[in-house]
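Dear support,

I submitted the protein below through the web form. The confirmation email said the job was done, but the results page showed an empty box. After a refresh the structure appeared. I'm attaching both so you can tell me whether what I see now is the final result or a partial one.
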Amino acid sequence: MHTWGGNMNIPDEFKGAISDFFYDKCISVYESKEVVGEEMDVTIEKGELKQNNLKCNVHLISNEIAKRDYGLDIQANILVTCDTTVAKIGDYLLYNDADFIVTGKLTPDSHTKLFAEVV
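What the results page shows now:
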């Protein structure tokens, strides 16, 4: 009987094939910026592009699912899964011609989960 005693070495070519299969969507990540109005009111708007054409997977999600499955008490309409990203909570995502704000971020293992709410 063979016992597994080390890390599995997965070839990069195989990782790329899996990524291409599962990460079949693209999003863009924008920083958020504070804008101070004439009456000193502060609003948050979409700022400069941080990351373009990020390959990912996108699922519709509800606040209840975010809480039940991930323990997050947040507002979220989509769950984005990707390998790596520079996105942080408060950043904007552009997906399918719609703007979203990142409301949660988890990195449980080799990929990142971004939770976002439509603007």
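Response: this is the final, complete result; the empty box was a page-load delay. The chain has a mean pLDDT of 88.
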